[in-house]
Design a protein that fits this description.
The strands form 6 sheets. The protein has a 5-stranded mixed β-sheet with strand order 17-16-20-18-19, with no helix packed on it. The chain contains 2 helices and 20 strands. It is mainly beta. About 10% of the residues have low confidence. The chain folds into 3 domains: about 70 residues, no CATH class; about 90 residues, Immunoglobulin-like (Sandwich), CATH 2.60.40.10; about 90 residues, Listeria-Bacteroides repeat domain (Immunoglobulin-like), CATH 2.60.40.4270.
């Protein structure tokens, strides 16, 4: 007789009835066991006895001979695809870890040694033991944010092949802001994503100093960075880019004293308050000199 040797197996395998010394032909397996493949028959349930395959001959001993089905777990297969959240485009270059419960993480890279998919952005892991796993993205494709929480995966008899489907990433935000750098008003910025290459905006700032005019944008306040003019294409964004307004003296305006030029380097106008303070300081110094002279005459 044949024993299914698993509480979850179903079906029937017809046995053989004969006499001691008869040659019985081993039957084909008629049982099914979800998540397992049939490996053959054995005279012991634990597989430590005599093994037989379909078509083998067995000389019947006296009494009843029981042959036990031998089962092997089907290894797990896990698949997923990395995509852009908005466009659905498949994204290459991500990296992951797969960690079994109470186990150590295994590193997985797109098109790496463990990835059997063979296509950019697609992943296929095979030969997985049964159990619970956590799949976590450790490096997102360029210009995208990684997922924020791990994905829980279970491999068991009913789930030997698990397809997670699309795992989507949002693009990493990036922006351009414009600094008046001594001017005033507002110049609208740009809100986009890492990797964008927007055009430099038209200047909307003004300068209180009528002898100052806009000279372009620069990545550094002192003008020692990269210069852009309206309509120039910026380098690919990596985060927040600040462009500082640059100001220059208008043609035909009288040159300011060196000290005042230094004060106005950033484009800030010389305000009446500043001029008044300078005049008051000069007047105070003159009064002090006059007092000393009068004191000297009376001495």
């Amino acid at each position: 007789m044949y024993d299914k040797n698993s509480p979850d197996a179903t079906g029937e395998t017809a046995g053989h009835t004969g006499w001691k010394g008869d040659q019985a032909t081993i039957a084909a397996n008629g049982f099914t066991n979800e998540g397992y493949t049939f490996q053959g028959w054995n005279t012991q349930a634990d597989g430590k006895g005599m093994t037989y395959q379909k078509g083998d001959k067995l000389t019947l001993p006296a009494g009843t001979t029981v042959l036990y089905a031998q089962w092997k777990r089907i290894p797990g297969t896990l698949t997923w695809v990395k995509t852009d959240k908005d466009s659905g485009e498949v994204l290459a270059g991500s990296e992951w870890t797969l960690t079994p419960k109470d186990g150590q993480p295994t590193a997985i890279t797109d098109n790496g040694e463990l990835d059997q998919a063979g296509e950019d952005g697609a992943f296929k892991l095979t030969g997985l033991d049964w159990g619970e796993y956590e799949l976590m993205e450790t490096k997102a494709p360029e210009g995208h944010d990684p997922i924020s929480a791990p994905i829980t995966v279970t491999i068991d008899a009913k789930h030997t092949t698990v397809n997670i489907g699309d795992v989507s990433n949002a693009k990493t935000p990036a922006k351009v802001t414009y600094d008046p750098n001594g001017g005033e008003g507002q110049t609208p910025g740009y809100d986009g994503h890492v990797g964008d290459t927007p055009e430099a905006s038209e200047n909307k700032f003004t300068n209180k100093d009528e002898c100052k005019e806009f000279a372009g944008w620069n990545t550094q306040k002192d003008g020692k960075g990269k210069t852009y003019q309206k309509g120039d294409q910026l380098d690919p964004l990596t985060g927040t880019t600040i462009l500082y307004a640059q100001w220059k003296a208008k043609d035909g305006c009288p040159a300011a004293p060196a000290a005042l030029q230094e004060l106005g380097k950033t484009g800030a106008g010389i305000t009446p308050i500043a001029i008044g303070m300078a005049a008051a300081t000069l007047l105070g110094a003159c009064l002090m000199i006059l007092r000393r002279q009068r004191h000297a005459r009376h001495a």
